[in-house]
Design goal:
This protein has 13 helices and nine strands. Helix 1 packs across helix 12 and helix 8 runs parallel beside helix 9.
Length: about 425
């Protein structure tokens, strides 16, 4: 178990290899359960423990508050809500107002974020999922807030989950993008040979800042493809290199804090490399997977209008164009962290080209979020218990159906 302080998820660094793989496997179980009638019924009891035969309540229904002082995308606004409902939890969503450039005033009546969290705790919520676009520095980050919460003498466990924090972190979208890579490019990812192209506003993309440290557990090559002055931030890269070095120590058998027996399967991982590129055409024939990011104008309020205008003028070079699509390998995958603000022409959203898998990413986001919530809020192994129960019922029904079907009898020869 990793997480921040043992239970909160604030950044991509709050995961280790074992936890990432466990969440992806849980997400696969949740998706399989949703496709099965009995699985869906059992899934709805994960956060709402009820004996489905007797209707007797076996525990408290878990409550989750989704809070955003900004205007999030539909995927962000609804995705977490759908994930909680899938698990049978009670969910409420509230969008406050925000005073620019501060984390101290977030509510329409001057309510601080700490006050919002304390109110959620007082109302009996088990988890709060927060999106905050206005954080500009680590000194104002969710980590500082959670450290304050951890000093409280709470009567029950409380979980804080980041759904986007300024340009610093976005661990939920990181899980979605990594799960897409794991589904479509599993062999390359697990062998540490994946060549991943990150295209666009690499500097201010909170998704990329969370994804690269997580990629350090797998290894591979990161192509940072961006305009001049917008390449990947060095402090985040240093953190990724530190994690990757720890994993390399595991290969050599040297003492490491990652010497978890379940993580031994990471042995053989390759080192993480980074290549800075200006022109995506330079590596079009090399990259296995592409992730595009929009120009993060909402996260660049501290930049001058002239600088932004200059970036906008050259940004079309970092959007998907027919010429680039033609140059990219046929076996590559292309996705977008969304929302797409014009980086992909409409035809690439309509399924005409099978390399574009962004909508599979939207589907998978529901399951990765549900897996994270179940991992935090549900009792140990509750999800697997429900899945095994559903499979047993489904298998019994199939056997009964087979027994009821008329059998073809062959008459013995005279």
């Amino acid at each position: 178990m990793s997480f921040y302080k043992g239970r909160h998820i604030l950044s991509g660094s709050d995961f280790d290899y074992h936890l990432l793989e466990n969440i992806f496997k849980l997400a696969e179980v949740i998706e399989a359960m949703e496709m099965d009638r009995h699985g869906r019924e059992e899934l709805s009891c994960v956060l709402n423990p009820i004996d489905r035969k007797t209707g007797r309540r076996l525990g408290e229904q878990k409550k989750v508050l989704i809070y955003s002082p900004n205007a999030p995308s539909l995927r962000t606004a609804v995705g977490s809500e759908v994930a909680v409902q899938l698990l049978g939890g009670q969910v409420n969503r509230f969008q406050g107002m925000f005073s620019p450039f501060t984390t101290e005033v977030v509510g329409p009546k001057g309510e601080s974020l700490l006050s919002v969290v304390r109110t959620a705790i007082a109302f009996g919520y088990d988890m709060i999922i927060v999106r905050n676009d206005n954080i500009r520095a680590e000194t104002d980050s969710f980590h500082v807030l959670v450290d304050k919460i951890e000093t409280l003498q709470l009567k029950r466990p409380f979980f804080f989950l980041s759904a986007g924090e300024g340009y610093l972190h976005h661990p939920l979208q990181m899980l979605t993008d990594l799960s897409v890579l794991r589904e479509f490019k599993r062999e390359q990812l697990m062998s540490g040979s994946l060549r991943l192209g990150l295209v666009g506003d690499v500097e201010r993309s909170r998704v990329f800042r969370s994804l690269v440290p997580a990629m350090a557990y797998y290894g591979g090559t990161i192509y940072s493809i961006a305009p001049e002055g917008m390449l990947f931030p060095e402090d985040v890269w240093e953190e990724a290199v530190r994690i990757n070095n720890e994993m390399m120590l595991l290969r050599s058998g040297t003492e490491s804090r990652y010497r978890d027996p379940i993580a031994i399967c990471t042995e053989g991982r390759q080192k993480l490399r980074r290549v800075d590129i200006r022109d995506p055409f330079e590596v079009a024939s090399e990259v296995d997977a592409w992730i595009f990011a929009r120009l993060q104008k909402n996260l660049r309020a501290d930049d001058s209008p002239d600088y932004l205008a200059g970036i906008e003028a050259q940004y079309p070079r970092y959007c998907m164009r027919p010429e680039l699509a033609q140059a990219i390998r046929n076996d590559a995958i292309i996705t977008h962290s969304l929302p797409d603000a014009g980086q992909f022409p409409e035809k690439y959203h309509l399924g005409e080209d099978p390399r574009f898998v962004q909508w599979r990413g939207v589907e998978k986001s529901k399951y990765t979020k549900a897996a994270v919530i179940a991992e935090n809020c549900a009792p140990n192994n509750a999800l697997i218990v429900h899945w095994n129960r559903a499979r047993n019922v489904s298998e019994r029904e199939k056997m009964q159906e087979t027994y009821r079907q008329p059998q073809d009898h062959v008459c013995p020869a005279d």
